[in-house]
Design a protein that fits this description.
7-stranded parallel beta sheet; about 40% helix; 8 helices; alpha/beta; 7 strands; about 15% strand; Alpha/beta knot; globular
Length: about 210
């Protein structure tokens, strides 16, 4: 009997079926990168929204501002995620590029809208810090810039709202092409299933969803 089979009886069949439905909709085709956000509300809101939309990974750069969350906003969403914390933005960039991601940033210096992006390319969307936006290094290294449609007077959206709007566009695209075309391969689902079972049985203190990268 495998380790997973030994632990599975501690979960009801209903719970396991529910987890399987969620697992079958998970994707790493898109990911969100939070670049030195300082407001725990914004960080928590993006993580929670990403989980709702089925994104598995969140990358958080804390070169300047440490990772802090608001548990009342998170609503336990983090335990279903894979959260990567980086002390150096360069390490985040290199990790994402090694995984084959295109780096995308929102910018007022382009007329290229989110609707014009080729979303068939795996893409990491960077959200910059609340007041200053993306770091100059990120701006210089980005593969593509885009704008979100805006028709009002206010210059920009709140960063967590902008993240939610972005993920809605991602979801619309995935529905159009068929979400099953960008969900996780079986090997990754097997690994994630085991992690979820462990967290359900033993908690996140032992089986943390947070991965710290120097």
């Amino acid at each position: 009997m495998t380790e997973q089979e030994e632990r599975s009886p501690r979960l009801t069949e209903h719970r396991k079926d529910w987890m399987e439905r969620v697992l079958n909709n998970r994707t790493r085709h898109f990911t969100m990168v939070l670049e030195d956000l300082f407001d725990p509300h914004n960080i928590s809101a993006v993580i929670r929204t990403a989980e709702v939309f089925g994104l598995q990974d969140i990358h958080i750069i804390e070169e300047i501002n440490a990772y802090k969350v608001n548990k009342s906003i998170l609503k336990g969403s983090f335990k279903w995620m894979s959260i990567y914390l980086y002390k150096q933005r360069q390490a985040c960039f290199e990790n994402l590029k090694a995984k084959g991601y295109r780096i995308a940033i929102a910018s007022t210096n382009t007329t290229n809208t989110i609707q014009n992006l080729d979303l068939s390319i795996p893409t990491a969307f960077y959200l910059g810090t609340e007041f200053k936006g993306n770091h100059p290094d990120t701006l210089a290294k980005a593969d593509v810039e885009f704008i979100l449609p805006q028709y009002g007077v206010t210059e920009s959206m709140n960063v967590s709202v902008a993240g939610g709007v972005l993920m809605a566009y991602m979801d619309f695209w995935m529905q159009k092409v068929g979400r099953n075309t960008v969900t996780l391969p079986d090997s990754e689902k097997d690994t994630l299933r085991q992690e979820w079972y462990n967290r359900q049985v033993y908690g996140t203190e032992i089986n943390s969803p947070i991965h710290r990268i120097p």
